[in-house]
């Protein structure tokens, strides 16, 4: 009697369980229109005006290409040398030198204010967008809406989407002109909306922080980002070095910091075999993956570049391009 009663009582629960197991994966996802209505309501509570919300989402759409790119970000299969050859062709160096000279006055002005050397500002500009030539053609609102609605990193991209609306509401740019990468990085400096809010600068004092078309704002915004992230204007980023035979490889780690003299005493030398500089900067040894043992002694500013982009290859490319550009 008790067993039969238990079977009867459990039957509905078993049926529900089997239904949930066989339910299509997408069925549990909130309807997009409902989701968007809730997001709009949240935007209003955050002080975003109704006209801005209406304009931003007037023709919003989910971009399947963005989801695909987010799911299938290509693994870096290039060696370090191949990556550097591709990212730092002679044409990029030549263009950078010309632009460094062309914009010398404004770059010096920005450098004086923020303490970031012009060659590093131009190097970041070059590595990020080829000096503004390739800034991305995706609608930032569509891209961020897609990624915020998607399940993988929804909380992060929802925050970025709401900040993008704030940028529009402050009239720094029109929604139709807010273009960027598939992940929502914007303008010639490729700032996410959170980076824009925290670091973008209206250097030309026209009332808009324009990282899309106004070079003084682009330069100052990049410099401000670095300055607030710990940049040292009287230091470089690092240098290639050689290691002696039998060197303790456990010391090749960003967590290991030593003054220059300690590395000198351990047999570390410049790439040409000469002694390290006598200035006692704190440095760490880095060997880029796929670099065939190529070793670099890096300083504080290298770590600061990593705050911009956590890729070792990216940080190395910025540092080496800055060196190739020359000058202060």
What does this structure look like?
The protein is α+β, with helices and mostly antiparallel strands and 328 residues long. Among the domains are: 29-77 and 136-186, Bacterial muramidase (Helicase, Ruva Protein, domain 3, Orthogonal Bundle), CATH 1.10.8.350; 238-325, Lysozyme (Orthogonal Bundle). It is 52% helix and 7% strand. The protein is globular. It starts with a helix and ends with a helix.
Brief overview:
With 328 residues, this protein is of the alpha+beta class.
The total count of strands amounts to 7
CATH hierarchy: architecture of the domain at 29-77 and 136-186: Orthogonal Bundle
What's the name of the CATH homologous superfamily of the domain at 29-77 and 136-186? Bacterial muramidase
As residue ranges, the low-confidence spans are: 5-27
Query: From the helix content, strand content and strand pairing, which structural class follows?
Result: alpha+beta
State mean pLDDT (0 to 100 scale).
90
- The amount of beta strand, in percent, is 5-15%
Lateral strand order in the biggest sheet:
4-6-7-3-5
Shape summary = globular
Helix amount: 40-55%
What is the CA-CA span between the terminal residues?
A: 90 Å
Q: Examine the coordinates and then state which fold CATH places here, giving the name of the CATH topology of the domain at 29-77 and 136-186.
A: Helicase, Ruva Protein, domain 3
Number of helices: 15
The helix-strand sequence is: HHHHHHHHEHHEHHEEHEEEHH
User: What's the CATH C level of the domain at 29-77 and 136-186?
Assistant: Mainly Alpha
Largest β sheet strand count, sense and barrel closure: 5 strands, antiparallel
- C-alpha Rg, in Å? 25 Å
């Amino acid at each position: 009697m008790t067993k039969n009663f238990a079977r009867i009582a459990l039957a509905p629960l078993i049926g529900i369980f089997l239904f949930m197991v066989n339910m299509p994966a997408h069925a549990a996802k909130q309807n997009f229109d409902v989701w968007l209505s809730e997001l709009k309501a949240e935007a209003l509570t955050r002080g975003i005006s109704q006209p801005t919300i209406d304009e931003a989402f007037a023709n919003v759409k989910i971009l399947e290409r963005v989801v695909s790119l987010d799911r299938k970000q290509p693994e870096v299969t290039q060696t370090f040398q191949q990556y550097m050859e591709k990212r730092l062709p002679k044409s990029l160096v030549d263009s950078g030198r010309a632009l460094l000279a062309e914009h010398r006055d404004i770059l010096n002005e920005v450098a004086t204010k923020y303490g970031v050397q012009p060659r590093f500002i131009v190097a970041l500009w070059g590595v990020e967008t080829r000096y503004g030539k390739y800034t991305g053609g995706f609608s930032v609102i569509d891209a961020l809406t897609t990624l915020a609605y998607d399940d993988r990193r929804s909380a992060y991209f929802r925050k970025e989407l709401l900040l993008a609306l704030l940028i529009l509401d402050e009239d720094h740019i029109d929604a139709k002109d807010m273009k960027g990468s598939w992940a929502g990085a914007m303008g010639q400096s490729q700032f996410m909306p959170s980076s824009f809010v925290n670091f973008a600068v209206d250097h030309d004092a026209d009332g808009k922080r324009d990282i899309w078309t106004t070079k003084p704002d682009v330069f100052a915004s990049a410099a401000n980002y670095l300055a607030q992230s710990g940049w040292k204007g009287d230091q470089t980023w690092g240098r290639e070095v050689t290691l002696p035979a039998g060197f303790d490889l456990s010391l090749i780690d960003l967590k290991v910091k030593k003054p220059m003299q300690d590395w000198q005493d351990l047999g570390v030398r410049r790439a040409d075999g000469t002694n390290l500089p006598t200035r006692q900067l704190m440095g760490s040894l880095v060997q880029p993956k796929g670099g065939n043992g190529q070793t670099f002694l890096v300083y504080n500013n290298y770590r600061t570049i990593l705050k911009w982009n956590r890729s070792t290859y990216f940080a190395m490319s910025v540092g080496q391009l800055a060196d190739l550009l020359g000058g202060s």
